[in-house]
Amino acid sequence: MGTLIINPKAPLLRNHDILHNHVKAIYGYTMIDAHNIVDIPAETPFDYNMVGYYAICGRYGVTASIVLGLVRDGKLYTKTLVEESDPHEYVDASQAVLNELSPTTNAQALAWRERVREALRSSNS
Hints:
By secondary structure, the protein is α+β, with helices and mostly antiparallel strands. The chain has one domain. It is built from three helices and five strands; from the N terminus they run βαββββαα. The chain has a five-stranded antiparallel β-sheet. The protein is globular. The N and C termini lie far apart (37 Å).
């Protein structure tokens, strides 16, 4: 899990902006400008309460990174998942992210992408 200390004297940013700036700092030029961040329900104050979906250009092409985030007590806590780990419950990636991904033969990534497409179809109907 990553931790970022937030400067209390800095201009106020929304939690989504804080998460996005953190991801930009980590991935830098490898991050493609296709992303979306959504709020997720948190059962306790210590649960991640937002998730960002990013298209990242890496050694084997463009893949999806799923970044869970929580801002609490002036700190950003993150956990990064990759599509190859088949993150079952995180399927709110945008069509823009899917459009950027390279073809893959990885079964877990293919299963995750299909669940995202299914969620997009059901949200459009």
